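Exercise 7. Predict the joint structure of the components listed below.
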Amino acid sequence: AQSVTQLGSHVSVSEGALVLLRCNYSSSVPPYLFWYVQYPNQGLQLLLKYTSAATLVKGINGFEAEFKKSETSFHLTKPSAHMSDAAEYFCAVSLNSGGSNYKLTFGKGTLLTVNP
Amino acid sequence: NAGVTQTPKFRILKIGQSMTLQCTQDMNHNYMYWYRQDPGMGLKLIYYSVGAGITDKGEVPNGYNVSRSTTEDFPLRLELAAPSQTSVYFCASSRQGLSGNTIYFGEGSWLTVV
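Solution:
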């Protein structure tokens, strides 16, 4: 079984400030981890994914995330927030195993607002 | 450059009515999924399919049915709509199982049951 916890349903930052969105996972086998972004009234778009290669993963729009097995974390960061980053962000996990690898389990989401 | 296409985008249903949400993908993906998204709850898997003719239940299948007669299409049927089915529905697809493969989402269908 797997689960995802996103700490903070709402994060507010100033334009130019560091963005840090927290995600912790629980998985009985090595996980695949994802971050998705959802802009208002749109579908989800993949930001980045961890698939057991490099632990530091770089994604689109200047975002990156680091897989830390000891902390069971996969936090999303961006050095300098832009107004266009305002959106809802979802962390998700799927199992790295043949039997249940269809299932993507999502966190509840973190709404990021960026203040001018 | 269509990807995953869902219709309709918005729909209002009366309690007890039925409807079908259409989903088609042009990426020749084997796996297709239906999720529902409720405020503050993330996305929950309703049904999924690993190929034409094969479907299976996800976390929240009650009140829904699906079929997969072709690789491209994966419609979701709501029978006897209830207010609890008011939600945003997302269809998605991936080349195979999610083991690191990217899942592509449609733009969503907003359904209100009154």
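Discussion. The interface with chain B takes residues 4, 9, 32, 41-46, 49, 51-52, 90, 94, 96-98, 101-104, 106-109 of chain A (CB under 8 Å).
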